[in-house]
Design goal:
homodimer; Jelly Rolls; 5-stranded antiparallel sheet; 1 helix
């Protein structure tokens, strides 16, 4: 049997992404759309229809940032609450209890970074 | 000498940030404005006046993401080049050679994440 002699085709890493093209919503529950991911971090865009939410939770060893792209979000981090719009950023340090909800009437889109990704 | 008996006041972590309030430019060179930082990652907002740039460089053990908030950036990652506007994201994997320039005429603002922060 002859060894393959053609070039090795690797799945290319997507270096350039348009967030608007990746942004998909789900009428059933908030949707996480992956943008980039490595063993060091992930970057997603989270999509919330009005009334959808991410319940309070913690990541013991990972820090997270939410950045509001579109709409308004009700954020809670260790009991501190804020309703924030586009251009706002929220820091959820490892171990903090955090939650997000979309009070509407607009759709909510968040750029999300977590480092490292949860194991 | 008596031991201090008052409560220990810790510098509070800023959980909620408005990027627009943190965004400062510098006529001399591109400016890095810190937003959040831990031992796991940092989040900055980089500000470029027209004509300013970040020269090509590499981070051996850290991944970086640029997200365009305002203006247009000319990005180069391992020889691949794109001019991108608001809502675009660029992934610079650890070890990749990457550079950014602002061709103008607008100011350029980028949300930047790096994990882990360079040592």
């Amino acid at each position: 049997m002859q060894a393959a002699s053609g070039p090795l085709i690797l799945h290319p890493v997507q270096v350039f992404r348009e967030i608007a093209e990746a942004l998909q919503f789900d009428g059933e529950k908030m949707k996480k759309n992956g943008i980039f991911a490595t063993e060091r971090f992930f970057c997603d865009v989270y999509a919330f229809e009005p009334g959808q939410s991410q319940s309070g939770h913690r990541h013991a060893g990972s820090d997270k940032v939410y950045y509001v792209i579109q709409g308004k979000g009700e954020f809670r981090v260790d009991g501190a609450e804020r309703t924030l719009g586009p251009g706002s950023a929220v820091f959820c340090q490892a171990g903090s209890e955090h939650a997000v909800a979309n009070p509407g009437p607009e759709r909510l889109a968040l750029l999300v970074f977590m480092a490292p990704p949860p194991r």
